[in-house]
Amino acid sequence: MSQVVSQASTRPPRRNRRPHTYIGSTTSVCPVCRSLVPAKVLCQDGRVYFDKFCPAHGGSKALVEEDVGYYLEAVRYAQPGSVPLTVSMPARGGCPHDCGLCPRHEQHCCHPIIEITNRCNLDCPICMADHAGKFDMPEPAFRRCVEHLLGAEGSLENLTLSGGEPTLHPQLLDFIALATRPEIARVSLVTNGLRIAQDAAFCDALARSGAYVILQFDGLDAAADCALRGRDLVAIRQQALAQLEAHSIPCQLLFVAARHVNEHQLGQALDLLLQKPFILSLAVQPLADAREGIAVDPLDRLTVSGTIRALARQSRGVLRADDFFPLPCPDPRCVSLTYLLGTAQGEWVPIPRFADIRRHLTMLAESATIAPSQELEDSLHEIVSDLWSTAGECPRNERVVSAVRRLFEGLADRAKDGAAQRRVLETSAKSIFIHHYMDRHTFDLARVPKCCHQYSLPDGRLMPICTYNLFHRSREGS
Ligand code: SF4
Ligand code: SF4
Fold first, then answer.
1. Which of 451, 456, 468, 471 to mutate to test the pocket of ligand 2 (most atoms within 8 A of CB)?
2. What residue ranges do the domains of the chain occupy?
């Protein structure tokens, strides 16, 4: 007996192996109190998780990306940013307290958003904004936002007016007219589509204003609408689409995608994008946890790579997962995108199938949209040359070559002004963006200094959207 005890006591204790691989660390927030807390970045079962610890509320775990390969590859797309011409806050308390921007920010603003009202005619459970109806931005404040933006940026590819529901603002059309100036290439409006569906006179005026519409379109499923938007909007969406088409108003579909709710509708949005000439792009936002409303399951949610897979699965062969690439303008883990080129035969061919996107990253590095530019012309020239040299290797090569040539010639036509060149681009190449805003589960402090999607506030501050929603919005009372 004593011999057995002695043998057991000399055996070294066994160490347990972790069920995951540690791949890094960052700073996130506690999902309960939103204090900044350390987070380990872990890979488990091919997925990426944050494992956080808050001294007050203990540990928590959150799914960050469904495909570790995509997550690790995305980091390799990082490119240097270019800073704004001016900043409005000193660096004092450190990230994210100094947002304004502060001099430590790494990227200028290529997607500015002005929230012109907090009134709304819906009460969506997923809304980030406080739509208590207390606020319509006065015209002098709007003018200040535009002037501050132009001071920081010099010129803008796009300015988005949002809310609340911006079509409820009594001066919306005046604001669009005010922002329509040579330094701003495009003014867009994010809307739930209710007024567009029901007010033909408003659509006439909107068409004359030249504004683009970003239409909330989360599929055509009544149950999903009730979960995400609080009511069945299927008929409204169909009416809004019909009005936009009838008025030839250029449009982006904005699809908030939620696991087990409406991810099965992504293919329908893609079909619309490819079939309808007035729909120029599709933006998918995997659902982020809002201040109130739907609680996202932090361990079972849609991420960027999950959205790519769902789109590829539902595209009936048009898209593959490797057609998407991380956008290097913000942190590349924030946004993924692809472009599809239209051929004269009515096909849509993803551009990464015939062009090495990595070689043409400069045209994408500083903006989330392809804009007419010398870099783009140079890239298209190179792509045409490459396609000629590989002629015959791809069954659709000839059609693709003539589509790229048409695009190149349209852009190189010096008789065309910037707006006409932009039209050539928009009608020849459609885009799909996947942008996953961070929330109390997935917030990663390492990403925000590179953020290029920013709110413009009347006092001149520019706020990265994720830091504003998580840290500043409640203090600003909006
Ligand atoms: S996110 Fe940018 S602006 Fe905000 S504190 Fe950090 S570096 Fe400064
Ligand atoms: S808004 Fe958030 S998710 Fe989007 S680019 Fe900025 S930091 Fe990244």
1. 451
2. 18-75, 335-434
